[in-house]
Specification:
It is built from six helices and no strands. It is mainly alpha-helical.
Amino acid sequence: MVPQGAHGYWLILTSFVAAYVLAVAPMPLWLMWARPEWVALVLIYWAIALPHRVGIFTALVAGVLLDTLEGAVLGQNAFSLVVVALLSLTLYQRLRVFSVLQQAGTVFVLVGINQLVCQWVQNLEGIGGPAPLFLLPAVTSALLWPVVLYTLRRLRRQYMVT
């Protein structure tokens, strides 16, 4: 018999794999600037829901995998996701009691910080995008936060992941 908590890691891993697929799924050119930061959203959810399982090391591994998948400078997404995870872990007790609207506002700030770090690294490389457009993923991520929150919460409760 499988221990009750063992399948929880499979659910977390599967949710990250789904986020990676959504992060590189083809989109029309006009919509590319507004692509939500799926990996950051999943990381924020799991860091809030299960801070004892998902933390800084998970963010580092997730970021290196995202760097590899996107062909970005190695460490760009890793650094930005570690910052997001650190802030999420610092705020997780407050975020749990926030309303969904307040959480979406916090997610906007967290993903905005993620985008600022990535934009900073890209500017150092000389390939940064237009100034106001790089924050569009923060807006779309905040708008999609309730969907991510309720979907992952339902799955976590259904599979009794603790």
